[in-house]
Amino acid sequence: MPLEELHIQSVRCIEALSLTANSRWNWLVGANGAGKSSVLEALHILGTGQTWRHSPRYVQRDGAGEYLVSARLSDHFLALRRRGEEREIRYDGEPLVSAWMLLDVLPLQSLHDDNSHFVAGTAEDRRRVLDWGIYYADRYYGMVFRQYRRALQQRNAWLKSGQGRQPWDDAVIAAGEEIQQRRQVHLAAVLPEVIALWERWSGAVFGLSLHLHSGWKEGLSLGDCLRRDQEQDREMGYTHSGPHRANLMFRVHGKAALDILSRGQLRVLGLAYRLAQVQILKQAGLPLPIILIDDFAAELDASARDWWVKELDLLGVQVFAAVTAAGQIPAAVSGSHFCLAAGQLEKETAS
Ligand SMILES: Nc1ncnc2c1ncn2[C@@H]1O[C@H](COP(=O)(O)OP(=O)(O)OP(=O)(O)O)[C@@H](O)[C@H]1O
């Protein structure tokens, strides 16, 4: 369901902005500080309920009492309003009780700083990206994930208080092992797609392998680890083993990708991984996400940019991408150009 119209009020440097979107390519063009990322972040907030910042407070335009983002999606209308700690999300006028429901309404894949460099980022960055692909492909995963998070919070609260009988291990183990198993299945499907994408870009054979460390000691079950480390966990008030500590590692010919690849190649690998996740959704006949790309041209040479737009074009996704100059947009794609300055839409052109 493509996004047709976007309206933003009081988000960062934007006072009020409305645009009519192209069903495929939407290029946000402007100098540093023009408001491109603010448009992308507004869309991200609308599709996930979450910001890219440490706190939603930083999203609200200075001096405004609230912010509002809304969109028309074919015949539907989605709106999110935030005033202080209160957030209200409405879909066709009806309140959405949970931001999780946005997964169905406005699927998004956001490529911005940390997650387009996620191969070189933290284990948490990589877990977030890994889990993104599974949430959208497998709704049961989202349910198991929430069960795990709840059980883990309760176990940690018990570890800190030291009160009563320890009742949470079974729930942590059942959901934790299910998460690990589903992550492995997802990675087995993603790997050949990533390799094929890379090889189309480079023209050379790519000896990539993906290794998922489960988050608990190899050779032991999660239950064994929780029992073994219970005293240590109690002392620290924290559960040390589980899929919340998992790490996804990228190796090229058996060596850490981080030690082998250049910055630009690491970004291409991160992008190939994200594209592969969308390909899997497409193969399964699931709705495709809108792709948000901040700083499209960063670290990519012209051939990598051409490769990327060609692959996105083949997928048939709707894209919103930020560039600092129109010259960074590959000639191969047409679409709409939105020229921004000081948080305002100055010009809208179709190419
Ligand atoms: N809460 C706020 N209220 C008003 N202005 C803000 C707020 N937060 C950030 N800004 C301003 O918004 C501008 C940043 O906009 P944005 O990050 O969207 O720019 P950009 O076009 O993506 O730039 P770049 O190309 O450098 O990434 C900055 O000038 C910043 O000072």
Q: What labels describe this entry?
A:
351 residues, alpha/beta, Rossmann fold, Glutathione S-transferase Yfyf (Class Pi), Chain A, domain 2, 6-stranded mixed β-sheet
General description of the model:
The RecF protein is involved in DNA metabolism; it is required for DNA replication and normal SOS inducibility. RecF binds preferentially to single-stranded, linear DNA. It also seems to bind ATP. One of its GO terms (biological process) is double-strand break repair. The chain contains 11 helices and 15 strands. α4 packs parallel to α10. The mean pLDDT is 93. The strands form 3 sheets. A 6-stranded antiparallel beta sheet has the order 2-1-4-5-6-7, with helices on one face. The chain has a 6-stranded mixed beta sheet with strand order 8-12-13-3-14-15. A 3-stranded antiparallel beta sheet has the order 9-10-11. A hairpin with a 2-residue loop joins β14 and β15. By secondary structure, it is α/β, with parallel strands linked by helices. It folds into 2 domains: 172 residues, P-loop containing nucleotide triphosphate hydrolases (Rossmann fold, 3-Layer(aba) Sandwich); 172 residues, RecF/RecN/SMC, N-terminal domain (Glutathione S-transferase Yfyf (Class Pi), Chain A, domain 2, Up-down Bundle). It is globular. The structure holds adenosine-5'-triphosphate. Adenosine-5'-triphosphate (ATP) binds next to α1. The site of adenosine-5'-triphosphate has 15 residues, from α1.
